[in-house]
Design a protein that fits this description.
- The protein has 1 helix and 6 strands.
- It is of the alpha+beta class.
- The chain has one domain.
- The protein has a 6-stranded mixed beta sheet with strand order 3-2-1-6-5-4, covered by helices on one side.
- The protein is elongated and about 50 Å long.
- The relative contact order is 0.18.
Length: 104
């Protein structure tokens, strides 16, 4: 087995581990009431299930989970758990970073 093959196997295993971890996390969050998923549409959050639009300021961020793939030189992602400030709405928003963009 070559060094390159071993490196590729380690990277693949790292990505697989992260995916398995995120699946377990999403299952756990579902059990905690985070049943909806949101996506960014312009400057608003849209519920993927109902297509309803919300101002992002209507939500509180409960937790932030970061998944990095640094070993593979792949940009990771950030998963946010959200709760609406007034309604009984809980969900998940996943953000994928833009390559070359850094937060100020």
């Amino acid at each position: 087995m070559s060094a390159r093959s071993t490196q590729a196997d380690l990277v693949l295993q790292s990505i697989t581990d992260d995916m398995n971890e995120s699946i377990l996390l999403i299952d756990m969050l579902f059990d905690l009431g985070y049943h909806l998923t949101f996506e960014l549409v312009g400057s608003q959050l849209m519920c993927s299930q109902t297509k309803q639009l919300f101002d992002s300021r209507e939500f509180m961020v409960d937790d932030i989970y970061r998944f990095d793939h640094n070993k593979a030189n792949i940009l990771g992602y950030v998963l946010y758990t959200l709760t609406h400030r007034k309604k009984r709405i809980k969900g998940i928003f996943t953000a994928y970073p833009v390559k070359g963009f850094t937060c100020p």
